[in-house]
């Protein structure tokens, strides 16, 4: 078993009180004999004593630790988001405590409670809940908070938010598909979290389809395997008349669709159009390239971290909303 050296061990070795050691650790040397200070410092060095981070935070106004909650750490875009946050916070002298909520509201609630108990200086969350009551304690306890990527319906204006123009980008995409002669929009979603970023995407496409007179359908894949999706896709696709554009509303769904198209002997854009969210670099080499809608997750993380640092420094008691544009990468799959 590893033996942890405590402040009491240092005090015994130096022949002083725990209070004296604590004062030296906190740089309070006033009215202290140089010989006493030297004796304590030698004991600290010989015992290899390192103060516990949690104890330091209790003694300090700030511990320079930021809590970061992501929905799914296995999703490369959550990882890019965390990297963007860490790149900014490291330069500002902060460490991050990264926690994976697994797209669960209950897991997220426990993680938020733990971060508060750890006395973090602020929290950045990729939310799972669509209701701000999940995060209300941060407001009550003056914990700086920034919500990133996904949207919370009743979020107060004073709480920072960084997200993408998902709804507008999908609305414009729907209009573009109409101009290109498509009659149907068939989206494939995988909304694992209540506050999924796919919700505004669906809303934008629905509105564009309604205005342009296109049919709109969605297949929700959560809880189902690829075999189920193959059957559901075949049924929906065969029931549609005219040209159909298929849209993957979440990057990983694209892998399933490409497999399904191969099994059903469907090619794009001859048999259907194909659009996908997220920046899959390899997608340019599939056929003549896949039409993409891209979000810059690292930049989103950078801006979220900057917003949180502004709150922490008290330069601005309120925090604004930043909407990042969704980039269109036009390729020949539609």
TrEMBL record:
Organism, as annotated: Limosilactobacillus pontis
List the Pfam families hit by this protein, alphabetically: LacI (PF00356), Peripla_BP_1 (PF00532)
> Care to name a GO molecular-function term for this sequence?
DNA binding
This chain's protein is named LacI family DNA-binding transcriptional regulator
Q: Which InterPro entries is this protein grouped with?
A: Cro/C1-type_HTH, HTH_LacI, Lambda_DNA-bd_dom_sf, Peripla_BP/Lac1_sug-bd_dom, Peripla_BP_I
Q: Record's SUPFAM superfamilies?
A: lambda repressor-like DNA-binding domains (SSF47413), Periplasmic binding protein-like I (SSF53822)
| Annotated keywords | DNA-binding, Transcription, Transcription regulation
Residue limits of the HTH cro/C1-type domain? 5-28
Domain HTH lacI-type residues, every copy: 5-60
């Amino acid at each position: 078993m590893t033996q942890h050296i405590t402040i009491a061990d240092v005090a015994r070795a130096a022949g002083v009180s725990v209070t004296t050691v604590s004062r030296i650790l906190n740089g309070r040397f006033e009215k202290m004999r140089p010989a006493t200070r030297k004796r304590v410092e030698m004991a600290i060095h010989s015992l290899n004593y390192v103060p516990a981070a949690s104890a330091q935070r209790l003694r300090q106004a700030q511990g320079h630790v930021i809590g970061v909650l992501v929905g799914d750490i296995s999703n490369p875009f959550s990882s890019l988001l965390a990297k963007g946050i860490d790149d900014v916070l490291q330069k500002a002298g902060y460490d991050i405590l990264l926690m994976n909520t697994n797209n669960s509201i209950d897991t997220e609630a426990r993680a938020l409670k733990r971060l508060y108990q750890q006395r973090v200086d602020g929290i950045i969350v990729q939310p799972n809940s669509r209701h701000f009551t999940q995060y209300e304690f941060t407001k009550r306890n003056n914990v700086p908070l920034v919500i990133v990527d996904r949207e919370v319906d009743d979020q107060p204006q004073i709480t920072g938010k960084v997200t993408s123009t998902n709804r507008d980008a999908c609305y414009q995409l729907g209009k573009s598909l109409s101009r290109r002669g498509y009659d149907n929009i068939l989206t494939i979603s995988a909304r694992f979290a209540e506050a999924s970023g796919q919700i505004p995407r669906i809303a934008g496409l629905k509105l564009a389809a309604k205005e342009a007179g296109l049919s709109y359908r969605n297949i929700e894949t959560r809880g189902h395997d690829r075999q189920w999706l193959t059957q559901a896709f075949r049924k929906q696709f065969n029931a549609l008349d005219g040209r159909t554009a298929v849209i993957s509303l979440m990057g990983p769904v694209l892998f399933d669709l490409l497999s399904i198209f191969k099994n059903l002997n469907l090619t794009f854009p001859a048999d259907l159009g194909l659009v996908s969210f997220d920046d899959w670099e390899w997608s340019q080499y599939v056929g003549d390239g896949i039409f993409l809608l891209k979000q810059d997750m690292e930049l989103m993380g950078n801006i979220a971290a900057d917003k949180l640092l502004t709150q922490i420094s008290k330069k601005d008691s309120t925090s604004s909303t930043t909407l990042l544009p969704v980039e269109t990468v036009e390729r020949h799959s539609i």
